[in-house]
Request: fold
Amino acid sequence: MKTFITSNESTSQELSLGDLSHAIFEAAVDAMIVIDTAGIICALNPAAETIFGFLRTELIGRNVSTLMPDPDSSRHDDYLRAYTKTGEKKIIGKGREVVGKRKDGSLFPMHLSIGELSVGEQKLYVGICHDITVRKEMIEKITYMATHDSLTGCVNRNSLHERLRDLILFCQGGEWQLVILFIDLDGFKQINDHYDHDVGDRLLSDLAQRLQKNLSKSDLLARMGGDEFLIASIQPRERNAPRRLGQRLLDCLSTPFNIKGIEIRVRASIGISLSPGHSQNSDQLINDADIAMYQAKAEGGNCIRFFRLDLRDKMESTFRTVGRLRKAIELNQFELHYQLQFELVPPYRPSGLEALIRWNDGCHGTISPANFIPLAEEYGLMPAISRLVLERACSDNKELISEGLLDVPVAVNICSNSFLQSEFIGQVSATLRRVGLPPSRLEIEITESIAIHDISLAIKTILALHDLGVEVSMDDFGTGYSSPGILKRLPIDRLKIDRTFIGELPHNEFDRAIVQATLIVAKSIGMQVVAEGIENAEQLDFLQKNGCTYGQGYWYAEPLPLPKLKNLLVIKRENYCENSSFA
Reply:
């Protein structure tokens, strides 16, 4: 028999265990501590010594409250006396999580279960416990990962709604309002495209830290995904409090970020919704702030806009239009109209034609490209539309050439997202082969904004098109980021002066100066120029006198679907020449 000596102030006796029980007691991984009805420690095993940091001899005869922090240590003896008196079991036989205290005073979480036993006539209690620090840390880590964004440390959208519901309830009927700010960076995709994604990730992380520094401890910062953040802030119910907060956040972003030695400036669009207000729940509150953010972005970005009910109707209309647009892409419901380009000297022979997309949206009628192209770009639909347009334009031009009606390049507008895709050159090459159109009879039109996206990649793509035999023109020159430096760097073949500078010629002094300067620069570098939007003889005369050689506009021909274009070409051929083509 193995014995353990148990003692208190009044009694001393041997606690005997059999060999098997003793072996289990000594080898157990869990700490095991035996106490009497007064709470005095009678026995403990080696695992208890390890967990609590005491030697066995230091604990035998001491109250078990030594191993508990306040207030548990001061309440323990009262609980024991109450249990001895009433027999009401509150913790006996039940496992629970408690806090233990080591010899050095440090605290740790542990799982504890307590049982009763009798040795002779003496009633004893045995506590079995183990340190759950590692398990709790793992659970906390998993919980944190499930509720926070791994890149920025912000709350993620999964855990956002429950916290918003609590904040909404807090603000009901009181002197406080819940302000939701939906923040979206302006031009973040271009930053990601221009630099590597590691720079973009670092920027988002640093931005989150900067936003957090400009918020109070009670404010909630969440990352909604990508470059979108949401802030929930309790503010006094005064009119200007939400705007002041929004402006403070915009101002804090005005200082450039330094990422890997690269100075990056960012701007943001902020949409604000309020509770109490038009929003009835957390979902609607977020959606309304999101809608207001899109309004801010539509107005040029780097500004704050508040939600209004009419914006919700507008956004719902937008979503419906986008849905129909997706269907139109799926069913290829677009048609192309072609506007002839021409030489600015008699007999004004056709020199090219531009493909212009049209969308007849059934019962909704014809929708202007100015209305649906921005939507297609915003919702990532332009690459699919560009593929359809490229295929149709090449096929139609091949038809014109085969029928002997016209043998000139067809110009196809390609947005920057499509133009800079790695597979774009392959798509162009495959389309030309499939249709059988000579590469010299295709022209790709890009806009100046492509230089902001990634000018190095743009140059590489233009040179690859030249290798195929396809020429490249810059459309809408003068309306965006015009710079002689762009013309110098981009190896484009042709420049198109935007119609906004042609419409008031020759009377508008500013337009005259812009057009003349453009023609001089283009001539000096050997670049052809096409003037868009020629509508009358005065404009034509001015352009001719200033050395412009090509034009496009209603004075010569309006955009026409292919059948009507063919009819027009027959008429022009009869009027201007006897050859079978205008080449």
The CA atoms of residues 117 and 124 lie 5 Å apart. The radius of gyration is 39 Å. Confidence is low (pLDDT under 50) at residues 1-14, 579-583. Residues 2-136 form a domain with the Beta-Lactamase fold (CATH 3.30.450.20).
